[in-house]
Write a structure and sequence with these properties.
The protein is α+β, with helices and mostly antiparallel strands. 15% of the residues lie in helices and 34% in strands.
Length: 451
């Protein structure tokens, strides 16, 4: 793609005349910076304020007029040492943007001394082009923190490919009319390797046939929870509506408050075995009954999720759908929950992912296992499912899905506990796609609201 160096307005506390016909980044902006656009006809307005930014250290800004579709970016090449870790940081402020995640986008591109693309040093184990050495695609630093002064911290830590000698930083504005983005204190500097975040995810494959009360049903799971704890599990997922299974009762007859008797019991087990437990229960809240997944941990009750999508039988049985997509902080990372029929709809897992979920717990009576793979892959999250379906049905599984949709482990027999150790800090890099998880905010389309 041919790039066009465009005009830049320079500010020093007042408007200076634009200088036309040359790249002012060479003369006025900090050394090495330029302003670029694919075509002059879609160029936005570029400005550099020598006293801009929250600390008065200078700022780059891009703005647009009433026309949509404008696209351009500031660019600079930073020297890097291959095989080392580098951290990108910048402060960013937006104005009049409806969807800042798609409009204000920073990227880092790895290149060799001749400006050519380079490859990563590892062989990919992703489900596409497995066994090949992927090309280093652009990195997408994310908003790490929203500051009190109206600015946000943009940040990303990366292992530079060994053949790269430069990291090209792009600060881009995409498409929206009448908006503005400003960046300050932009840097790409050496740093240390981020620590691993290894987590052992576990699930049970079990039908709680015995038991005539909620608490009796819950007690059936302790031997399985103990077995998971013996293997060092950090979290274990139990199936859907476990106090209802096999009792021949109506939903409301098994419903209870949450927190309540069942979560109190599981809290004691979580503390005893030092792990988190996700359990599928039926919840009563006043006159309403919900199909709910509860999360408890060594520290106590963590939170709950109410099933948003209801199949016909639950609607006819008087269950009310939930409306929220909560994600909960645990000692090892961020956990979301969905339940059974939710898996048929991409919106639920996507919303949980957008809210920060790294692991999605999925108590699931039955579902198409391909949808479990899809929900994991399209959001780059780990999905842990617990079902009542036997393997002979060739239907839903009790297992752990990797972020590329591969099944990492799967139970074969009822009464079995399976576990997989994963590293939440390890990025999944695809051939062609690169780090797809990092691209989701800027690439996910805007869907018109129905509200």
């Amino acid at each position: 793609m041919k790039l066009i160096a465009v005009n830049v307005l320079i500010f020093l506390g007042f408007m200076c005349p634009a200088v036309w016909g040359q790249n002012l980044a060479v003369n006025k902006m900090p050394a090495g910076w330029s302003a670029e656009t694919p075509r002059e006809e879609i160029s936005p307005d570029f400005e550099y304020n020598l006293r801009g930014g929250p600390s008065g250290l200078g700022s780059f800004s891009i703005s647009t007029d009433h026309r949509s579709g404008s696209f351009g970016w500031f660019q600079k090449s930073f020297p890097v040492e291959g095989g080392k870790y580098y951290e990108f940081t910048a402060l960013q402020r937006t104005k009049n943007l409806k969807h800042a995640r798609r409009t204000a986008v920073a990227r880092v591109l790895w290149r060799d001394a001749d400006g050519n693309r380079v490859k990563h040093d590892f062989v990919s184990d992703a489900s596409y082009a497995r066994g090949t050495q992927p090309r280093a695609e652009p990195e997408f630093p994310a908003v790490a923190e929203k500051l009190n002064n109206g600015w946000s911290l943009i940040k990303g830590t990366y292992l530079v490919p060994s053949t790269a000698t430069q990291g090209i930083v792009e600060l881009s504005y995409r498409w929206q009319a009448r908006g503005k983005v400003e960046w300050s204190q932009v840097d790409l500097h050496p740093t240390v390797a981020p620590p691993a975040r290894k987590v052992k995810l576990a699930t049970v494959h079990f039908k709680p046939v015995d038991g005539d009360s909620n608490i009796e049903k819950c007690r059936l799971f302790e031997p399985l929870i103990a077995k998971a704890a013996e293997q060092g599990a950090d979290i274990i997922v139990l199936p859907e509506c476990l106090t209802y299974y096999g009792r021949g009762l109506k939903y409301h007859q098994c419903a209870e408050t949450i927190p309540g008797e069942s979560t109190d019991y599981f809290q004691k087990l979580a503390s005893k075995y030092d792990l988190y437990i996700c359990a599928g229960l039926l919840e009563r809240d006043g006159r309403l009954v919900f199909n709910t997944a509860a999360l408890v941990g060594p520290e106590g009750f963590v939170g709950k999720y109410r099933k948003v999508t209801l199949p016909r039988g639950e609607i006819e049985g008087g269950i009310t759908p939930g409306t929220e997509y909560p994600v909960f902080e645990t000692s090892f990372g961020k956990v979301g929950m969905m339940i059974c029929y939710d898996g048929f709809f991409p919106e639920v897992a996507r919303k949980l992912s957008q809210n920060g979920a790294e692991v999605i717990c999925w108590p699931v009576w039955g579902c198409n296992p391909l949808l479990g793979a899809a929900r994991a892959c399209e959001n780059h999250v780990f999905v842990v499912s617990s079902t009542y379906c036997g393997v002979e049905l060739d239907w839903m599984i009790s297992g752990i899905y990797g972020r590329d949709g591969k099944i990492l482990s799967q139970a074969q027999e009822f009464g079995e506990v399976v576990l997989s150790e994963v590293d939440l800090a390890r990025r999944l890099i695809w051939s062609s796609l690169g780090d797809f998880k990092a691209q989701l905010p800027s690439h996910t389309p805007v869907v018109p609201s129905e509200d």
